[in-house]
Design a protein that fits this description.
Length: about 140
Amino acid sequence: MRPPAPAPVPAPGDAAPPTAPRKESAPPVAATPPAPPALDLAALEKRLRATNAIGIFTKLSLKNQVDDLVARFRTFHQGAPVAVAKLREEYDLLLLKVLSVLQDGDPELARDIGASREAIWGLLLDPVKFKKVTS
């Protein structure tokens, strides 16, 4: 028996290029959600007045409730001891009422108001922005 032949040693110039380590494929980039539309309180108010999803007496009742809430925020911004948590609770209840009235009759307006919920809260809570929108 013959001993096995040694493996040929390639010449330095004949060597195959080293293979690069395999890169793991990058995870797919999640699509970023579109930015919410710019908040336009005047347009939302106009749409609320124009919608047929809310009857005239309900609109008057909601307007009175909004006016009462705005008055409580005005008192808060004047330095009166008003709990922010209480204001938030009243705000959330009012918004839920509006959304429940709109959801079947004007779902697009309900969606836009729901999407603006935190932005509206931010306007009400910030004294400078509050003054601008209520002046």
